[in-house]
Design goal:
Blueprint (H helix, E strand, L loop, with lengths): L8 E5 L2 H12 L14 H13 L3 E8 L2 E9 L16 E8 L9 H14 L6 E4 L6 H9 L3 E7 L4 E8 H8 L4
Parallel strand pairs: 4-5
Antiparallel strand pairs: 1-2, 2-3, 3-4, 5-7, 6-7
Helix pairs in contact: 1-2
Amino acid sequence: MTAPATPAVEIRPLDPLKDAELIHPWVTHPKAAFWMMQDAKLQDVERAYMEIAAHPHHDAFLGLVDGEPAFLMERYDPSRVELVGLYEPQPGDVGMHFLVAPTDTPVHGFTRLVITAVMRELFADPATARVVVEPDVRNTAVHALNEAVGFVPDRAVRKPEKEALLSFCTRAQFETAVGAAI
């Protein structure tokens, strides 16, 4: 018996108009409550991602696993978006959000595969020294995932929309956590 092959992960820029219909049920799904778009209409999702596409310091991506759309990823400059004035940014800091598409048939370890792929993508840029996240303090599932890939919680910070757990992950912390160099 051979071990199953590692799934192929591809990350491409999100096209707000072409991809909004795909991601709308993802961001409005009950399991995506922390994404804060529960009542969003399709046009709201298009508008939100058009704003991200137009922003010089915020990008959105669609992740495919074995060719199938499977997750949403956002990358941002935390010194200009999301965390302005809430912490002291360092050169090479990159902010990140990710959302796995909802499914009726969960696959054990899939979300861990996704966050690992997201982190590899971010650290593929040699300018990225540290990834910064700010999930809701109540989102214990994502805190555990973050810690599994090397994030270290720093402190809670108050954002307009939530109380967030500010956490950081350096390249070395990520490599140690996943057991491989990037």
